[in-house]
């Protein structure tokens, strides 16, 4: 559990997925995995986040952590150096989520 922050999001997702599918109940590990994923959520790609949340739920992870992660606003930024440094930022949010002032720049 101490080394969860060393795992890439994909690896953390794979470990939680393996727990979920093996039927092993490890509440303390899931609590730590949820904290780790939540604190590094911006590092997760869309696919990894969806896989993590599904596996986390199936493994018996905390529903509040799952709901908080699922409803968090996602932000992706892309640089286009060939277009004189144009940067595009995309924001995604779930329906019913409060609108952020940040997205209205």
Characterise the protein shown here.
This protein has 105 residues and is of the alpha+beta class. It has 4 helices and 2 strands. Strands 1-2 form a two-stranded antiparallel ribbon.
Largest sheet: 2 strands, antiparallel
Q: Which strand-content bin applies to the residues?
A: 5-15%
**Class from secondary-structure proportions:** alpha+beta
* Lateral strand order in the biggest sheet: 1-2
Q: Which stretches are low in confidence, meaning pLDDT under 50 for 5 or more residues running? A: 101-105
Whole-number mean pLDDT: 83
What is the helix content?
40-55%
- Span of the ends, CA to CA: 39 Å
The radius of gyration is 16 Å
Count of DSSP strands: 2
N-to-C SSE string, H for helix and E for strand: HHHHEE
Helical stretch tally: 4
* Morphology call: elongated
Summarize the structure.
The chain is an alpha+beta fold.
What would the keywords be for this entry?
two-stranded antiparallel ribbon; 48% helix; single chain; alpha+beta; 2 strands; 105 residues; 4 helices; 13% strand; disordered C terminus
How is the secondary structure organized here?
Blueprint: H1 9-22, H2 27-39, H3 46-59, H4 63-71, E1 74-80, E2 86-92
Antiparallel strand pairs: 1-2
Helix pairs in contact: 1-3, 3-4
């Amino acid at each position: 559990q101490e080394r969860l922050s060393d795992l890439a999001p994909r690896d953390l997702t794979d470990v939680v997925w393996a727990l979920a599918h093996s039927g092993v109940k490890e509440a303390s590990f899931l609590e730590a995995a949820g904290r780790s994923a939540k604190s590094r959520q911006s590092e997760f790609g869309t696919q990894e986040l969806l896989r993590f949340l599904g596996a986390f739920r199936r493994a018996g992870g905390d529903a509040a952590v799952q709901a908080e992660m699922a409803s968090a606003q996602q932000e992706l930024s892309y640089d286009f150096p060939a277009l004189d440094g144009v940067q595009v930022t995309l924001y995604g949010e779930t329906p019913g989520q409060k609108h952020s002032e940040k997205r209205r720049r």
